[in-house]
């Protein structure tokens, strides 16, 4: 059984697209079978999170943890499956997320949906005219 004891960034680097949580000794530790293992920067040294989608990008990386001379390697996919890991990571990276883009996308999607509905309504009116369905035509025209 693996649990995250502590996850703190050594430092955080944010660019246009990613938030990179850089890890170092004594800042990341896990419990494995009631034993504490400390992070060692042997393989992966950072967690890369997309600022727009909030998804972890480097899911194929492997992190090394050490207790004494024993080194344990845990993949990012295994860490992602731990709710406490995701909660702590989200708390660290949330201030760096780009939220305005999602609001613009939602507004843009609403406009696109409205346009598609209007185009569909016009097609239905054309169909009613082609079929000489006067009742459907007047019902659809009132929806414009």
Report on this model:
The protein has 144 residues and is an alpha+beta fold. The protein folds into two domains: 2-96, no CATH class; 100-141. It has four helices and eight strands; from the N terminus they run ββββββββαααα. The strands form two sheets. It has a five-stranded antiparallel beta sheet. It is rod-shaped, with a radius of gyration of 26 Å. The chain starts with a strand and ends with a helix.
What does the secondary structure layout of this molecule look like, with pairings?
Elements: E1 2-7, E2 11-14, E3 18-22, E4 28-32, E5 35-40, E6 46-50, E7 62-67, E8 70-75, H1 76-80, H2 83-93, H3 100-130, H4 134-141
Antiparallel strand pairs: 1-4, 2-3, 3-6, 4-5, 5-7, 7-8
Low-confidence stretches: none
How much of the residues is beta strand, in percent? 25-35%
Q: What separation lies between the terminal Cα atoms?
A: 60 Å
Based on DSSP secondary structure assignment, what is the total number of beta strands? 8
Q: Count up the domains.
A: 2
Sum up the overall morphology in one term: rod-shaped
Strand order in the largest sheet: 1-4-5-7-8
Task: Classify the helix fraction into a percent range.
Answer: 25-40%
| Rg over C-alpha atoms, rounded to the nearest angstrom | 26 Å
Element order: H for helix, E for strand:
EEEEEEEEHHHH
SS summary, helix count: 4
Major β-sheet profile: 5 strands, antiparallel
Average per-residue pLDDT, rounded, comes to 88
What structural class is derived from the secondary structure elements? alpha+beta
